[in-house]
Amino acid sequence: MSIFKPCDIRGVYNRELTDQDAYDLGRSVGKLIRGQTVLVSGDVRLSTIALQTALCGGLVNAGCRVTDAGILTTPAFYFAVRRTGSAAGIMVTASHNPPEYNGFKLLLENRPINQEELDYLQQTMVQKNFIKGSGNYRRDDTWLHQYRDEIVRRFQPGNLKIVLDCGNGTCSLVAPEIFHSLGYRVKELYCIPDGSFPNRSPNPAVAENLITLSRCVAEEGAAVGIAYDGDGDRVAFVDETGQTIENDRLLALFARHLLVREKGVIVYDTKCSLVVAEEVARLGGTHRMARSGHGFVGHEFLESRALLAGELSGHFFWRDLGFDDGIFSSLVLMDLLRENRTSLSRMNKALPRYLITPDLRLPFIGSPQELITDIARKLSRFPLSRLDGVRVELEDCWGMVRPSITEPILTLRFEGKTRESLSFITDLILSVLPEEIQFRAREIMASSLTVSP
């Protein structure tokens, strides 16, 4: 399987992704930007130092002027690229993937790399059609401290008790310090950096990875629990009762926080609840849907000059920053709790809650595009979106089918304001799918439906 994915590059280290790949990527990026300035950093994964060293070597040999910023969270990396005005930035990270993975996130001209540019890099690496230059290398380890000072400067002090679960990831190096310096009473959980991730997977969007955090919040009597992924651009929250708050509901709360101050665009991905669009419209904002996926949501965020964008996986993009940041998002939530003088569970309960399924991930062998085209044809009498697979959205329900870009999987998701509307949209969409997919989807739904309290 290719290490080139939509929006980034990643794979299992020393099986799919090697130091030679990193070196060749450096030479390819150097050719693309013609030897301009590049800022490089990496997360705490065990393979990062070797990949980062090889990457810098390739960039220098292609004539680039390289600044190695050492170990940073991905948001601190974004911050450093912006502040330095570098022509390109490369972050060595596999984000939320398991420990054996690593990869690269790339910025060009202070924006995420697009698919055409990724294709160019892949072609250059395959053909080994490099250029030779004589660049230079310098190390600058000040950026994590500069980022920390900038974040602290933006927020008022607080005194709530919180549980901070850094998952042994890169946020361990900076998140506890930020919260302590702002006056929060912090219970640290897995806040020692360890690239083997010995205590939990780096992905906080998986419920089982938050079990210890939930228990700790209840035991400590904390106001909130916060969990980060491996590189700090994703976040998950647990309320004071130990219950995980879905990220689309957090997005609605964040939108409320911003829209009472200023009207603007709020971007959300195709898997978010109807609650998001309804809350944005109620507050006079403009809601805009983006295809699911970090790169797609980020692109729409930049294109629409949105106040805020959010993805169900836990990415929240802020106009004040220009990028997504788990720590920044956490501190906005602290502001929300302080200003509303209430608990996270009460704020959550104040939002409508509808009947929604989790992602139903089902194996599929065949041509996904042919299937999606067939589904769209069969459902053409209903309002359809082809933004991300096929999505049917009616006044009181919606359902979607989207193929995975990286594996032979179909993802289905349904929401209804009532049991009747959920049954209608589910039956409608399942009726146009192969029988084996219908059966498996109903089997999963029977055991995992989120029901309104």
TrEMBL record:
It comes from the Bacteria. The keyword Mitochondrion does not apply. One of its GO terms (molecular function) is magnesium ion binding. Its cofactor is Mg(2+). Residues 3-125, 146-242, 247-351 form the Alpha-D-phosphohexomutase alpha/beta/alpha domain. SUPFAM superfamilies: Phosphoglucomutase, C-terminal domain, Phosphoglucomutase, first 3 domains. CDD domains: PMM_PGM. GO terms for biological process: carbohydrate metabolic process. Keywords: Isomerase, Magnesium, Metal-binding, Phosphoprotein. Belongs to the phosphohexose mutase family. This is Phosphomannomutase / phosphoglucomutase.
